[in-house]
Structures are given as structure tokens and as C-alpha cells.
Amino acid sequence: MWFNNAHIYKFTKPFTTSEAELVDSFQAHLFRPCGSQDQQTQGWVSPIPGTEGLSHSANNNILVCLKTEEKILPSSVIKEALDEKVQLIEAERGQKVGKKEKQTIKEEITQQLLPKAFSRNSRLYAYINVTDQFIVVNSSSANKAENLLSFMRQCLGTLPVLPFKPEGDLMATMTLWVQKDQLPAPFEFAQDIELKALDEEAAVAKLKNHNVTEEEVQLHISNGKFVTKLGLVWSEKSKFVLNEEAVIKQIKFLDIVKEQTEDVPNEDKLAKFDADYAIMTGELNQLILELEKVIV
């Protein structure tokens, strides 16, 4: 269980709900598969496949999982069926089908095709750090992360959180780090950077496997571009990309971290999951807390 993205949300009021109370609130919102007329369903499932518990915790970090099933119905298929139906009606009546009726026909066709559509299943993980009072969602999409929080809010009745963001301009901060080649410890530059101009053209420069303090990058900055994404290494333990919204993406835990669970046999899947999760949350929590110190 290794997160590769981190949308971070901080509690604005103390989170005092126990794990048992959290799980109890999930009972009315368990996952059920799509019925014949459902386009999408979602609900809570066990974060450990093959087990029944709706949560898993280690060191006061409560892991949960939201499962979504979505019917895949290509718009081109609906459009083709709609065009054929509209043409038949117009030929019979001798007049064009109105916009409102056309929408009704489209909805009817969608309902007819749904039972034949393929399904796509996805799982979205998040954990609540009760000690430090924040939630981490393993998603690169802000919309998906917000959806999970909204679903959790329905269960609990309230969830007072706000996205983790520095008070200052993070673009300006990251640009200054690169411009002056001064990065606060324990962070180091990786070799990925994205810069963007703030004028109408909004020109973007993306560089991979590139020394971010070299002349080419400095030239982009002197020409008015700001750093919007920056690859960083934390304490020689993990690599990641930090964006202007303070979202941590493309997290890669390095060998020095993953080697800590090598003595746990892969055959014992539950023990392996538990060990990986405990190590991952411990390292990621520390990374977040240290990152907060340098960007606030």
C-alpha cells in the first residue's frame, strides 16, 4: 500500500470521531454494483481486498477506500442511435424535431443502451491522520479527491477541512528556490520542472531529466516565467513533484524506505499490507510536515 499522489486537506476543527464511529457511519453508504439503469454507483469497501473491514489503521492513521463503478457508454454510440431515431421521426412527421424532444429521446436511448454497456471499476484510497489532523487522498485529480471528501461528509454529517495551501504564493517561492539555487533542507532538487508565463500567451516550458538550476531554466525565469511544478527529493527517501497548488504528485518511495519491509514474506499478504502501510504513512506524514515548514 504505497500512495503515489497526495491531495492534502487540513481539519479546521478537531477531528474527534473514533474509527468505530467512522465505520458505523459508512454502513448506510456501502458500495453496490450498478443496476441495469445505473450509469454510476459508488460506496465504501474494505481497503484490503478480500477482507470485510471498512477501515485499516496504523499509528493513528485510518485508511478508507471508496469504490466507483461506471458504465462506459461512448458518446459516439449514443449520437449515432440518436441521429437515426431523429431522422425516422422527421421523415414521418415532415418537420424537424425540437431541441427539448431531442434531449428526451437521447435520455431514452441512453437508458435502453445502459444494460448492454461495459463497466469500469476504480478504487480511491485516503487516510485520516488523527494525530496531526489532516486527510491525504491518493489521487492526482482534485475533483476525485473532493468527491471522496463529499461522500465522507454525507456519512458523517460534517467534515470541516480545507485544502493544504501556503499563505504565500507557492509559484513565487519555488521560482526563488530555483533562481537562487537555494532549497531548504532536507529537500534537494530532482530533475523535473515546469515553468509558465503569466501573460496572455501563457507559454509553458517542461523539462525532464534536466538540471533545474542550469542556464536554460534561468533564461526562462528571466523572461518572465514562473515555476509551476518542481521535482524534489526528500531526505534521500522519496522523490515527488510539487505543484503550485501544494499537491504532491508522482511520489516514488526510494529503496531505503521500501527495504524496511523486506523481511515480511510476500506470501503473507495481510502482514505485508500492514507493514507497507505503516511505513508509508510514517514517511509521508513526516514529508508533509517538513514540507509545510518550508512553504508556509
Question: How is the secondary structure organized here?
Answer:
Layout: E1 7-11, H1 19-26, E2 40-45, E3 56-58, E4 61-72, H2 75-93, H3 99-113, E5 118-129, E6 134-137, H4 142-156, E7 161-163, H5 170-180, E8 187-197, E9 204-208, H6 215-222, E10 225-234, E11 238-243, E12 248-253, H7 255-258, H8 269-295
Antiparallel strand pairs: 1-6, 1-7, 2-4, 3-4, 4-5, 5-6, 8-9, 8-10, 10-11, 11-12
Helix pairs in contact: 2-3
Describe, in plain words, how this protein is organized in 3D.
Helix 2 packs across helix 3. Strands 1, 2, 3, 4, 5, 6 and 7 form a seven-stranded antiparallel sheet that branches. The chain contains eight helices and twelve strands. It folds into three domains: 115 residues; 41 residues, no CATH class; 126 residues, no CATH class. It starts with 6 loop residues before the first strand and ends with a helix. Helix content is 36%, strand content 28%.
Counted beta strands = 12
Helix content: 25-40%
* Count of folded domains: 3
- State the oligomer: single chain
The ordered H/E elements are EHEEEHHEEHEHEEHEEEHH
Task: Output the structural class.
Answer: alpha+beta
How can the largest sheet be summarized?
Answer: 7 strands, antiparallel
Overall outline: globular
Share of β-strand residues? 25-35%
Question: Tally the helices: what do you get?
Answer: 8
Mean pLDDT: 92
CA(first)-CA(last) distance = 29 Å
Rg of Cα set: 24 Å
Any low-confidence stretches, pLDDT <50, length ≥5?
Answer: none
